[in-house]
Design goal:
Blueprint (H helix, E strand, L loop, with lengths): L1 H34 L7 E6 L5 H10 L6 H11 L8 E6 L4 H10 L8 E5 L5 H5 L5 H8 L2 H6 L14 E5 L5 H23 L5 H17 L6 H13 L7 H8 L35 H8 L8 E4 L6 E4 L2 H28 L1
Antiparallel strand pairs: 1-2, 3-4, 5-6
């Protein structure tokens, strides 16, 4: 009986020792894993969403193959005081990092936030066209077309048209009308300030507004950046000679007709934006120009061009110094267009 009891005691001791060793190995192994510095490998991006708990983060790291076990990372977070200092966002974590290294990386903050809303505004859109991309088009349009908002932004025109900077904008939360308009106007002011600083001069608010009007005309007339300073040259030369600008884009704005051919009736509209009928610049910008057009309005190419007409490619223009040369260019353009139309008709008939 004593021998049996003795064997049982020995067996229990053996089991306890084995368990202790196993626990010790696990604890030591876990400690080594937590604190050791790993070899930096290929980075993996993870997204920690708003409201994620320590358990959620540990599960995500395990799922991405960045940690072998969730428990050690959870223990580490508990030892460090919890997950309250880990911000939500997008992180880039190299494979092979220890739990400690991963935790320290998370505390530094995300490489970029999670964006809930993205808007891309191409160059040359009107306030109304931009409003169609806003979360609340009606509220946005009411704001950007209000004189009160223009005054708030120190813009001397009736609205902020011309000052909504084209580009891509990212927001962590869906913006209201004012937040969206503010960030676009702030971006315009940043770009304008750079242009002023780069070239060492300053313009009054009214002079600035006139340049933005010119930039909006350039934006609507040009599809090629290299031609923008030449179009600016034509505009300024015609203004100096007291010639009507005769820019079709101003008629489109006056008639609110885009993407269609203008008629002779359109050219008769009694509007201050009709640059066939009235000399000088239109009273406001006719669109929201991009940086290349703003730069061209400030720094036109010097020369004697007074006219330009589109080429058959629909992108570039032919520039002329006198009416006779311009007339020849117009005739050449019409012939080229007619030839393209005939070729298209023949091609369709063959099919």
């Amino acid at each position: 009986m004593k021998k049996i009891l003795y064997k049982i005691v020995l067996m229990c001791l053996f089991i306890v020792i084995c368990l202790s060793l196993m626990i010790g190995v696990v604890v030591v192994g876990g400690y080594i894993y937590i604190v050791r510095e790993g070899v930096s490998g290929e980075p993996i991006e993870i997204t920690i969403n708003k409201g994620s708990t320590a358990k959620d983060i540990a599960f995500l790291l395990k799922e991405k193959g960045l940690i072998p076990h969730e428990i050690f990372f959870l223990v580490l977070i508990k030892m460090k005081g919890g997950d309250k200092d880990i911000k939500y966002g997008i992180y880039s974590i190299p494979k092979g990092y220890s739990a400690q290294q991963i935790y320290e990386l998370l505390l530094k903050g995300p490489i970029r936030p999670i964006y809930a809303y993205k808007i891309t505004v191409p160059e040359g859109l009107t306030n109304k066209q931009i409003s169609l991309t806003a979360p609340d088009p009606q509220k946005f349009l009411e704001l950007v077309n209000s004189n009160e908002y223009a005054k708030e932004k120190n813009i001397p025109g009736p609205t902020v048209e011309g000052f909504l900077m084209p580009g891509t904008y990212l927001f962590e939360e869906v913006p209201d009308a004012k937040a969206l308009a503010d960030v676009m106007i702030n971006q315009f002011e940043k770009e304008w300030k750079k242009l002023m600083e780069e070239n060492g001069f300053e313009l009054s608010n009214e002079e600035k507004y006139q340049k933005v009007i010119v930039a909006s005309l350039i934006e609507e007339e040009s599809k090629v950046d290299e031609e923008r300073p030449l179009i600016a040259q034509v505009i300024y030369n015609r203004l100096k000679k007291d010639m009507p600008l005769q820019i079709d884009a101003t008629l489109q704005y006056a008639n609110q007709k885009y993407g269609v051919l203008l008629t002779n009736a359109d050219k008769q509209i009694d509007s201050p934006y009709n640059t066939y009928k009235y000399k000088g610049l239109p009273p406001t910008p006719i669109s929201n120009p991009g940086l290349p057009s703003l730069r061209a309005a400030l720094f036109p190419e010097l020369g004697e061009y007074l006219y330009f007409v589109s080429n058959a490619d629909g992108k570039t223009h032919t520039f002329s110094k006198d009416i006779d040369t311009h007339t020849d260019a117009v005739i050449h353009y019409r012939k080229a267009i007619k030839k393209k139309q005939n070729n298209r008709t023949e091609s369709n008939q063959k099919q």
